[in-house]
Amino acid sequence: MLNIQDLLxxxxxxxxxxxxDKAGVISELTGLxxxxxxxxxxxxxxxxVLARESQGSTGIGEGIAIPHAKSQAISDIVxxxxxSKNGVxxxxxxxxxxxxxxxxxxxxxRPGDHLKVLARISRIMRNAALRExxxxxxxxxxxxxxxxxxxxxxxxxx
Length: 158
Fold this sequence. Notes:
alpha/beta
């Protein structure tokens, strides 16, 4: 099954991203994956995510961005989360800064799973009250619980 609870570990959450631009956010989150042993080559992964960004921004609006890519740098699906207190210009659809970032990376041979997880993240982030709570919470465990509780409201995906 492909639920966020199976993919988002509290060690893959950055409560206060330092990055001030799109490339910095991506680098910070891919570096987090590398430090936690989830990716073999953070630079290659960053390049893959930036290449995807060059096709069109993954800033979906409402303060959310979901940078994503398929890569040989990983062997399983991984999700990292970052929050920016100041916001980052992610060339979002609504022209506003992004504050909440989900980095999704899947192996190249799992394109269907990639789309399913993207859809799942998009669905849970439609909840405006959740977005506000995510901006205010103080601890990674609290943030993770909020996301997982919202994810639990929807049927499992296979």
